[in-house]
Description:
The structure holds two protein chains of two kinds.
Chain A (H helix, E strand, L loop, with lengths): L6 H22 L13 H28 L2 H33 L7 H22 L3 H28 L19 H41 L12
Helix pairs in contact in A: 1-6, 2-3, 2-5, 2-6, 3-4, 3-5, 3-6, 4-5
Chain B lengths: L2 H19 L1 H20 L4 H32 L3 H7 L4 H30 L8 H26 L8 H26 L3 H30 L2
Amino acid sequence: MKKALSLNTHALVTLGWLFVALYMIFLYAPREETMGEVQRIFYIHVPSAITAFVAYFIVALGSVMYLAKRSPAWDEVAHSAAEVGFVFCSCVLVTGPLWAKPVWGIWWTWDMRLTSTFILWLLFVSYLMLRSYLVNPSRAATLSAVVGVVGAADVIFDYMSIRWFRTQHPQPVILGGPGSGLDPRMLATLLVSWGAFLCLFAFLLRLRVGLARAQRELGEIRRTFDMDLPEVQRGQ
Amino acid sequence: MHQATVVWTVFAKDVRVEWRNRETLALMCVFGLLLVFLFNFTLETTHEEALRTLPVVLWVTFAFVGILGFNRSFAAERENSCLEGMMLAPVDPGAIYLGKMLANFLFLAVAEVVVVIVASVWYNFSFVAALGWFVLIAFFGTLGYVAVGTIFGAIAANTRMREVMLPVLQFPVAVPIFIGAIEATGGALRGDAPGQFANWLKLLVAFSIVFVVLSYLLFEYVLEE
């Protein structure tokens, strides 16, 4: 990923792709028969959900790699993915009720699918909170990596729960097997939107990882020249 | 030293310390009592209502009572730098974890027995009919919860907020345990056929094992400084 695509080009590609996705969501995709216009939120809801799961996968991967390799770069990846993933997961939890209110008549129900997404959101929150309360940077990296790995067990449960339990939530349409009958134009819109979201996620992740690296390097420079460090960074 | 010896030594040490001052356990029991009192006092307690609310009351109480124990478990090690001693000991950190976890399990189990007896009296509900299943469910639910609580207690002890951090850290991870435990307990207490809540119990067993194994493997990273 390093120099294959410069950050600026990546930003432009993301922006363009998002516009294409917007066009397809509102103008290209046909109007859903029973749900009407509100169904179009599906093209934002589903890609956000998938991206949030991808983000946690990266958190877990970064955590495992950090524990194995002890390179701060992996920790920065995990931390950044958690922050960006939190945004996408919040997006899922906001768009879901917006769709559910007109379609189900309620904002929220403790359906397994909704519960598991909420758990995923809580995992992001607790991971990020832990980070902000840990003082020593290397301890913070190790301990949050441990939490990231233990939390992954929950995410696997989240993922499986939608297949184990009967839910009110619509079943997965992409890999839902035969009979998930999605209009080809709808499927195309979903895939383009999904791609745009993943591209946006990758862009934000790169940006955040770059920031984390700059912060670490600044810290190292300060330590080298023995400049005054704020109290919090000195560790316990 | 042999793995089992380390586990036993740590476990016996924690039990001995607790036996001598009986502070944490007393706190856990009294707190559990208070919670059951509050729930029982504020919620309707007809037999049908009890069947619906009792599993929730029990597991929420276990959860809060457990938090007290997990916090003490490592806060106590910080006093007199006992934690440093453990880090320096040339033994498997996983064994230390298992010892601490077993001690936490014992304390929480004792508090649970007290809570269940009190709940049984106040709710006028007999656990005898479903005792076997209930004990099995409580065993695995507690095991999974304690497995997460022990390692996260050690992590929280490193943060600035200590005690306050633990619930925020471990409840999200422990949610599947509680969902499984509450559903299974509800089934067992209603006297459902075991087949009806077996899936929840399986979920519970799977999670307990996963959490114990993960925490056992990861504890060495928590203990290092």
